[in-house]
Amino acid sequence: MTPKSPSTRVHVAADTEATVAAVARRIADILAAAARERGRATMALAGGNTPRRLYEVLAQPPHGDSIPWPRVHLFLGDERCVPPDHPDSNQRMVRESLLAALPAQPVFHPMPAHEEDLAWAAAAYGGLLGREAPAGTGGLPQLDVVLLGMGEDGHTASLFPDTPVLEEERTVAEVWVPRLEAWRLSLTLPVINAARHVLFLTTGAAKAEALESILGHGADPRLPASLVQPADGELEWYLDAAAASRLEPPTSG
């Protein structure tokens, strides 16, 4: 099975470690090129458990030494509304898995999701994006890389099925997730789709059914990850064999 959009590329590796290695190489290439061409590179990081190993790999040689980290600005794609030192905090995960091991530090912009006024927090982070990421098509901040994961239900960042945030026009929004009974902050579809490169890191057999629908049938609000369709950028999916098991014929890269 091939993706609906010709601008979408799918890469399949044998296992999670090989998939992570491929994503790390791609991120390193994009960040280095952006820093050379524009003087800085910008990237939104995925949260949750899946990317932790990727960040550990990026912090190690050769990437830890080859990426021009002081010229990299790192943002978060979403954040749980917990204190920064909470075990569920994406900020904490990034600091522990990536920043703590780097030989030189990037500029890290965590989301202020611990603030009581989440509408203010979303507006503040949206303003930060507007200042730190150069505007692209339509005047939206244009990040060089947006790294995303995907849940079994097809959600990505904190864009869950059947939630109003899928229609949001702001670049950052506060999100109530009913099934989790929790608030989050998240980048929204307009700013994700304005990025130069969007990379999905998706592993595990539990994601295979959703991937079959997303890559075979295109946009469907019931699967929010399918709504990620960059306007002028590139979309790449990095899968392990288990996640890609329902894609026929298998696509490799």
Description:
By secondary structure, this protein is α/β, with parallel strands linked by helices. It has one domain: Rossmann fold (3-Layer(aba) Sandwich), CATH 3.40.50.1360. It has 7 helices and 10 strands. Helix 1 crosses helix 2 (52-59). The model has no long low-confidence stretch (mean pLDDT 93).
How many strands? 10
Assigned CATH class: Alpha Beta
Helix content: 25-40%
Q: Strand order, main sheet: write it out.
A: 1-10-9-6-2-3-5
Rg over CA atoms, rounded to whole Å, is: 17 Å
Keywords:
Rossmann fold, 28% helix, three-stranded antiparallel sheet, 7 helices, 253 residues, globular, alpha/beta
Give a brief outline of the structure.
With 253 residues, this protein is an alpha/beta fold. It has helices at residues 16-38, 52-59, 63-66, 90-97, 118-132, 189-192, 208-217; strands at 8-13, 41-45, 72-76, 78-80, 107-109, 145-148, 172-177, 182-187, 197-202, 234-240. Helix 1 packs across helix 2.
Blueprint (SSEs and pairs):
Layout: E1 8-13, H1 16-38, E2 41-45, H2 52-59, H3 63-66, E3 72-76, E4 78-80, H4 90-97, E5 107-109, H5 118-132, E6 145-148, E7 172-177, E8 182-187, H6 189-192, E9 197-202, H7 208-217, E10 234-240
Parallel strand pairs: 1-10, 2-3, 2-6, 3-5, 6-9, 9-10
Antiparallel strand pairs: 4-8, 7-8
Helix pairs in contact: 1-2
